[in-house]
Amino acid sequence: MRKYIFNFKILNTLLLFACIHHVHGQSDSLARRKTNDSIRPRLNMDAIYNRPFLTSTKLPVAIGGYIEANTQYRSTDGVSDGLHFQMRRMTLFVSSTMSKKIKFLSELEFEEGTKEINLEYCAMDIEAHPLLNFRGGIIMNPIGAFNQNHDGPRWDFIDRPICATGIIPSTLSNVGMGIHGKYFSHLWIVGYEFYLTNGFDDKVINNTEGRTSLHAGKENPEKFAQSSNGMPLSTGKLAIRHRNIGEMGFSFMQGVYNTWQIEGLKVDHKRKATVFAVDYNTTMLNNKLTIMGEYDRAMVELPGNYTQQFGSLQWGAYTDVIYTVIQKKMFGWEKAKLNMGARFEWVDYNDGRFRETKTNIGDDIKAIVPTIAFRPSGTTVIRLNYRYEWSHDLLNNPEVKSQAIQFGFSSYF
Amino acid sequence: MKKLSFVLTLSTAMTLAFSACKKLVSASPSKDAVMSSAIEGLSLEQNKRFSDGSEEFSEIYDEGSGLGPIYVATSCASCHSGDNKGHPSTNLTRFGQIDTNGNQYLDRGAPQLQHFALPGYTGERIPQGAMSSNFMAPIVAGLGYIELVPEQDMIDMADPQDLNGDGISGRVHWNVIPNWVKPSANAIQQNGKYICRFGRKGGVYNLHQQIVGAFNNDMGITTSYMPIDPYNAESGIHPSLSSGADIDDKSLNSTVFYIQALQAPIQRDQNNVVVMEGKTIFKNIGCAKCHVESLRTGNSIISALHQKTFYPYTDLLLHDMGAALNDHYTEGFAMASEWRTTPLWGVGLSKDAQGGVMYLMHDGRAGSFEEAIQWHGGEAEQSKINFNQISKTDQNRLIAFLSSL
User: Fold this and answer.
1) What CATH superfamily classification does A2-412 receive?
2) Which chain A residue shows the shortest CA-CA distance from B121?
3) What's the complex ipTM?
């Protein structure tokens, strides 16, 4: 029954979207596009509202979304499964301003066709003061920058950073509530967020990935209805931005992840997962050069004498360097851009040494990803990536080399 | 016009990119550098079964898919990385049997220790007073060939009374097999016992028995043949009979076929002069008396394995290896100081599966070939003495030969 209700909601959303799109086609006076340059959020925490929406004076909601698709030819140690076409995701946004200081936004995501359908975000904001806003619903945990600012069209790379999916399980959202606010002073913006939400479950260390994985621990289908252990996950972030220099964010997340009691009966010890993240972004040389990145560190408490393939410490980092080579009218598009750049990333899923041999535990990945990205407008990107990756297995055996050639596009609509 | 030129440019760029794919990816490692390939000559159907088995071998289990609750590893591949040897961190421990009179600690969870446990459960510990031995996971590549060595050939190689007086008295391991193990059509029987060949003590009859046992004892994965999870004396909770096996017979059989159809490790640099000289020294100092260079398979329905000569460097027999290798633990009817000759094929690739370091012997106690040789005693004592008496140059030639295997 729940499935039918959910599908009915999806259908409603799609019909509403079709209706607005039809209206938009008929008359610009009824519906208009509110377009933002998708790659220039103010703070990363603003990214969720800083999206292009189609609005209508006749309707109480604004609507938008984005699409992301690509081709991929990947090879590992010379063995390839050939060329694949991937429909990574299609996302629909619906937002509404109910009154001057009350607004609502939802984000419904279809990944790999309809393989995964997730309500990634669905929250209401009530503003008491710029420094004090209440937010509740399904919220995105403000850990790192990518999790808050993950829309495909914003990025010149087809793959998401490994640390932002393998360490921080982007997109990470949970039911909860909390506060956020911003303080403006001339060239400075300071923002904060703090939320209590439902958290992870036992699959963090009991999963088929064979490693400690917050990603596996977020998959609990019941998480939008109840916590796995009745203890909230705390997530907080402090971000500071100088308009001429750039932004830095410091975030943390901590909570007990395992089911340690059942109906009041203690069945296990409480074990915490803690994540710290530092993110940064800056633009220089007349906004031609953009550098952004993130460092994530996860510490997960394990049972005593647990199998060593599950690590208690994971970390990862990436840096994107993007330079705008050409910015002019191209092929009829005003202000089209041709960007070139590279991503450098490194993730260690299991930082430590084997108890028996005192040698390093492997399970790590390094990658360099050069990119050429053509942006006909601020909301659309066409990307060509080449990925060169080195990885070690758990035992730190000689590295495995993988390469991928990817061509794809992403666009808001 | 501009749009047309854009489309043309884009199409050209894409065509160039994809035509360049093969130049932008690294080459495959040569067949003699890896062990996870299928033997050549499999039929299309056999290739499909091999592929299914490969997937099963790499499957990582969790609580939901049947792992534990007590276990040693979460997948086959975690101990046999790249179908190669294990690593000290994945060693398993067995305990409780010191002689041929059986295991005295079966009611305490013997013979295998499952020291890891799912969250909320307690891992096993070795009962006080029980003797134990650590076993490193062996190379699984090529085991299909070893399974097919005719039993009569093993008997012919044995010399339990050392009638030829060379100091080597290898014997086959006659052992009792579980009632769910189906002996081969031409199986030789002696007082209800069969000739076994797998495992460090050579106490396991065939790959089917070995793999069913590994699923159960290493991972707590039940099958129709061993439908009960390992007993944990530490917690005192008796496991109940599963309502259904954690994996079905098809998955089990695919895994067995995968191991049977793995290519044998291939020697490298066979024509290198130093390697060839090392091989001669290997024979001259007596190593090849137990580490027999070549064996031949018998009949097999897998044509690629039928009547083939292969080069495992083992005689599949039990040998007394002396006091230094006596862990005071044994299995079946082997003595505690007896070990089945370990095949040496693939030993030169050990580092590739052991984190760039070498861990040799049954528990990884030796960090080099030289050290491994020094652990040899008993029937191998004379060969060790011979090795110590040859020149350093010849020793290096011998090591070069071992490294090529």
Assistant:
1) Porin (2.40.160.10)
2) A268
3) 0.87
